[in-house]
Design a protein that fits this description.
single chain; 321 residues; mainly alpha; 14 helices; 1% strand
Length: 321
């Protein structure tokens, strides 16, 4: 019973803290910092479904975020729909595309699949850059009147923030539900030995395709909210491959295959990244530091922070998943 899992209540407490602290203090800078942290947690948690649960490394997961942003802003800006149905449409369309695409590229394994996901991101980026309804290379700029439906720009930014926190909580709950389900056991069997899992009756192609589609749904919705808040979307920002690589560092840092560990790794990395960007010494070496961090994790802490905690306090494995 998922309601009896302590991890669920920890997730709800984290989401409540994210929502209430900036709202009570009225600290806009803190709100923006936590929003970015929530985006990173969403990206890392959904990437964890592929890497942590099935051992399929997806370098192109940022394509879901960017394409969702484009579809959502097109619906809001051109069709003049509200933000909320635009989010849902973006999530459904991108997830359906991922399902169709996944049924093809998930026949590949290992490095071949990883390379194919990079190709997917670059192909989607090239398509959007040349697709004039999406603004082509110039991107799309949101009309200021689009905020009126949500009570004006100031009110809309707060609503966008709370919606992003809700998606962050949903991402972690989705990870927990899948992990504790029979479907999740099938994914872990694929991770350990896909051929053996199929011999035992696990429908690996179907499981992988559904997981790939599920890992696209919430990031696409988050992309809509994120770029709606920014008021502009450009191909270079929306499909930045660097963010995909950083998301891998986040889940490796926290512990791939865990729920709260990945969220902790994403938040810690966002804070560390923020420090580097404002540092006069390290501002130009952010990606170098990320690369070194990934190398150190792989060499000395392959199970991430949660793996280190579990080795020292095994009982926590049943409490903090």
């Amino acid at each position: 019973m998922i309601l009896k899992r302590p991890t669920l209540w920890i997730i709800l407490l984290i989401a409540a803290a994210f929502a209430l602290i900036p709202a009570v203090t009225g600290d806009i800078a803190l709100r923006e910092s936590l929003l970015l942290g929530a985006v990173y947690i969403i990206l890392a948690s959904n990437l964890n479904l592929m890497i942590g649960y099935t051992a399929y490394v997806n370098f192109g997961n940022i394509a879901f975020f960017g394409l969702g942003g484009y579809i959502g802003l097109y619906v809001v800006n051109t069709l003049h729909w509200s933000l909320w149905p635009a989010c849902l449409i973006a999530g459904c369309v991108v997830s359906l595309l991922a399902l169709v695409l996944g049924s093809g590229i998930l026949r590949l394994r290992g490095a071949y699949f990883a390379l194919a996901t990079i190709g997917v991101n670059e192909a989607v980026k090239a398509f959007v850059t040349n697709f004039q309804p999406f603004g082509g290379a110039s991107g799309m700029y949101l009309s200021f009147s689009s905020f009126n439906a949500l009570g004006g720009a100031r009110h809309a930014l707060w609503l966008a923030y709370f919606a992003m926190i809700a998606l962050m909580a949903l991402s972690m709950i989705l990870s927990l539900v899948i992990k504790r389900s029979r479907f999740g056991l099938g994914l872990f069997a694929i991770r350990e030995d896909e051929d053996a899992a199929q011999v035992l009756g696990v429908k690996a192609p179907l499981y992988k395709s559904l997981t790939y589609a599920a890992s696209a749904f919430i990031p696409a919705m988050a992309g809509t909210i994120y770029f709606f808040k920014n008021g502009v979307i450009l191909p270079e920002q929306a499909f930045d491959l660097t963010l995909s690589i950083e998301a891998i560092v986040m889940l490796m840092l926290g512990g791939q295959g865990t729920v709260l560990g990945v969220a902790l790794g994403a938040f810690a990395y966002e804070q560390f990244r923020g420090y580097l960007l404002v540092s006069s010494t390290f501002s130009q070496f952010q990606l170098v530091v990320a690369g070194i961090l990934l190398l150190l994790i792989v060499l000395f802490l392959p199970e991430g922070f949660m793996g280190w905690v579990y080795r020292r306090v095994p009982r926590l494995r049943k409490v903090i998943e």
